[in-house]
Amino acid sequence: MCNLTAPHFQDAEKARKYLENLRWPDGPVCPHCGGIEKIYTMKSKKARAGLYKCGDCRKQFTVTVKSLFEDSKIPLNKWLMAVFLMCSSKKGISSHQLHRMLGVTYKSAWFMTHRIREAMKDPIFSKLGGGGGIVEVDETFWGNRKPRGQKKGRGYHHKEKIFSLIERGGEVRSFHVKAVNAKTLKPIMKEQIDASAHVMTDEAAQYVPPRNQYGPNARKPLEDDFAKHSVVNHSHGEYVRGKAHTNTIESYFSILKRGLIGTFHHVGPQHLKRYIVEFDFRYNNRHIDDVERADKALKGIAGKRLLYSN
Ligand SMILES: [Zn+2]
User: Fold this and answer.
1) Residue 244, by phi and psi: left (phi above 0), alpha (psi -120 to 50) or beta?
2) pLDDT 10s digits, 15-54
3) What are the φ/ψ torsions at residue 200 (nearest 5 degrees)?
4) Rounded to an integer, what distance in angstroms lies between the CA atom of residue 116 and that of residue 120?
5) Residue 202: enclosing H or E segment and its boundaries?
6) What's the pTM?
7) pLDDT value for 157
8) Which among 31, 91, 177, 217 counts the fewest CB atoms within 10 Å?
9) How far does the centroid of ligand 1 lie from the alpha carbon of residue 180, in Å?
């Protein structure tokens, strides 16, 4: 069990040790050259705590060098607390709330949450639905800003579009896409879904090409790329007929949307993809506890180099 009174949330020095154990379970590794054999602890009075020197490349380092924490002036224990809070709140935690809870400026809190999301990007090793697994595919829309002058009305053209693929009993992968059509979605499906998968979608045109198409430009059905494609017809109320349903992805979207509405009132379109990463991360690590989930994110932070400055 872990709560916010744990020592590594209170004390920067204990936080550093916690991170060292996590990042280097078998002892320090030089981030410059990968050396492990000749690592010395710098113990002079001037040296800061946690400073090491590598005998191979002669360079110095700490546990945060070449990680997403590098160059941050925010104390490490506050970083660890931020990671824990983000990983343990089901619907996420806003920068405003973090700013109040951690006693850092709003700007710092915003910067921290974005960097932590960066760490939550899971490396993708395999496709979804390998070995004949079921993959549900669907899209949802977010936001309601309409271009000026446009009349109110239905349609989703002005909204942000989120496209998700979820393996039943497995992982979700979500994408912020520009448009919802076969041209934009099919390449993502082919990249993310194994050819042996059983794909389930609704009856929308992007998944089911119109009948009676001919010629070289005729769109191919999904069966051409995947072992099986089942279509759920929402309008006939056949949500669950045998196995053909998209309930898994619909419940994922409902968590995502409640989080976006409740916690992140004003998610700008330019940041949406990062929030999606955060929700995917929590979903994909739903079977481990809060501490393990936070540790996993911390490993991501420690193991990732800075991708953007600031
Ligand atoms: Zn080295």
Assistant:
1) beta
2) 999 999 999 999 999 999 999 999 999 887 777 789 999 9
3) -120, 130
4) 6
5) strand 198-202
6) 0.84
7) 74
8) 217
9) 48
Relative to beta strand 134-142, strand 198-202 is: parallel
Residue with tokens 């977010």: 142
Task: Give residue-wise pLDDT tens across range 250-263.
Answer: 999 999 998 888 77
In whole angstroms, give the CA distance from residue 210 to residue 300: 44
Tokens of 59: 């360079």
Distance between Cα 305 and ligand 1 center (Å)? 16
Radius of gyration, alpha carbons of the chain: 23
**228-232 and 198-202 strand pairing:** parallel
Please report the pLDDT score of residue 280 as a whole number: 95
Q: What separation in Å is there between the alpha carbon of 39 and the centre of ligand 1?
A: 8
User: What residues of the chain score a pLDDT lower than 50?
Assistant: 1, 306-310
Cα 294 to ligand 1 centre (Å): 28
Cβ proximity of 140 and 172 under 8 Å: no
Instruction: Measure 37 CA to ligand 1 centroid, in angstroms.
Output: 10
